[in-house]
């Protein structure tokens, strides 16, 4: 238990620091949009692979393993619980939870100055009136709400995997989340830059975002520990394994939604940009919940000497290749680092 908590804390600290540093990069250097898109596509594949080949199978194995162990101890071959129904309910519950959060957040996160497809430009990044300042603060909080909820959902999977006896599962899930968060944090920074917040406010926003997943993971860890104290200590207790399996399967459902949303968004051709020659400070910002990837925000802000990189798109086969490489990576890593593990 202590070893699992220590590993989770170490991963959480590394993730928070890495997310914060990566997210602040656009404040100092110009990044290649094509390179970020490539990372996003590969990261989307990682989420799909982690869900379908690692998290969900491990959850199912734990659920059924709990019955096998319980049957071996009690000499009972009849299932007490309908395991397929439990698995289906957990998968569907995780998927639908993220769907409802996504739709609810999308309907409540339209900043006042983005309505109608136009962004109010505040000269010099300063707010002229108290009303404008209040509006900007409200817009920043609501724009980040969906991202924070998605990040917290990632923490559920990370916290649940840390209670598993499978060490390679912890590594693969953490890697998938880290790769997913890197372009997301950069995208959050570019979105806030496009809305012309101060650098101090942007850093504060990224700092809060960087803490969301680690804190959610720790909260999940302690909740599972409270519900099932023996889980994660190598115990074969049927209740412990069943609880871990159900939570892993639920988190697999959340992974599936985020990954599906990612691939759908990234595989679409970018919308035509409306350019107004008479307005050099024109902005066109996609909704911040476009799969947590506001990196697709086109912005021209306060640094005309550093032109934005061209918005290049990938061919269909390039998208398929990058996502496919991502989907097989988790299983390869589990094979490499989890050799000799036995579920039974």
Automatic annotation (TrEMBL):
GO biological process: one example: zinc ion transport
Keywords (A to Z) from UniProt: Golgi apparatus, Membrane, Transmembrane, Transmembrane helix
GO cellular component, one term: Golgi membrane
Biased segments, Basic and acidic residues type: 271-296
Transmembrane regions listed in the UniProt entry: 6-29, 41-60, 80-101, 139-160, 172-194, 206-224, 244-263
Keyword Membrane: yes
Subcellular location: Endomembrane system; Golgi apparatus membrane
Protein name as annotated: Zinc transporter ZIP9
Pfam families registered for this protein in UniProt: Zip (PF02535)
Sequence segments annotated as region (Disordered): 267-296
GO molecular function per UniProt: metal ion transmembrane transporter activity
Presence of the UniProt keyword Transmembrane in the record: yes
Membrane topology label: Multi-pass membrane protein
């Amino acid at each position: 238990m202590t070893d699992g908590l220590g590993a989770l804390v170490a991963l959480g600290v590394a993730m928070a620091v890495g997310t914060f540093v990566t997210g602040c990069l656009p404040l100092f250097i110009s990044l290649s949009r094509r390179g970020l898109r490539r990372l996003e596509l590969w990261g989307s594949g990682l989420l799909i692979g982690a869900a379908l080949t690692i998290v969900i199978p491990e959850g199912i194995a734990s659920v059924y393993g709990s019955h096998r162990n319980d049957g071996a101890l009690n000499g009972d071959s009849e299932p007490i619980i309908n395991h397929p129904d439990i698995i289906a309910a957990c998968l569907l519950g995780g998927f639908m939870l993220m769907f409802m959060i996504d739709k609810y957040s999308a309907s409540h996160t339209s900043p006042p100055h983005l309505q109608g497809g136009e962004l109010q430009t505040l000269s010099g990044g300063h707010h002229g009136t108290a009303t404008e300042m209040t509006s900007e603060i409200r817009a920043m909080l609501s724009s980040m709400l969906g991202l924070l909820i998605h990040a917290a959902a990632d923490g559920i999977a990370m916290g649940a995997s840390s209670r598993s006896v499978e060490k390679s599962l912890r590594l693969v899930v953490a890697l998938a989340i880290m790769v997913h968060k890197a372009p997301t944090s950069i995208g959050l920074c570019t979105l806030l830059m496009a809305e012309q917040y101060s650098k101090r406010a942007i850093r504060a926003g990224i700092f809060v975002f960087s803490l969301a997943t680690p804190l959610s993971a720790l909260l999940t860890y302690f909740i599972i520990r409270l519900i099932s104290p023996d889980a994660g200590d190598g115990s074969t207790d049927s209740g412990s394994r069943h609880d871990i399996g159900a939570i892993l399967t639920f988190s697999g459902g959340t992974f599936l939604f985020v990954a599906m949303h990612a691939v759908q968004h990234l595989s679409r051709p970018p919308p035509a940009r409306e350019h107004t020659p008479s307005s050099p400070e024109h902005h066109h910002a996609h909704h911040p919940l476009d799969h947590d990837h506001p990196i697709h925000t086109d912005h021209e802000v306060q640094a005309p000497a550093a032109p934005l990189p061209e918005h290049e798109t990938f061919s269909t086969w390039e998208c398929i290749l990058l996502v496919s490489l991502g989907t097989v990576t988790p299983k390869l890593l589990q094979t490499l680092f989890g050799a000799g593990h036995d579920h039974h």
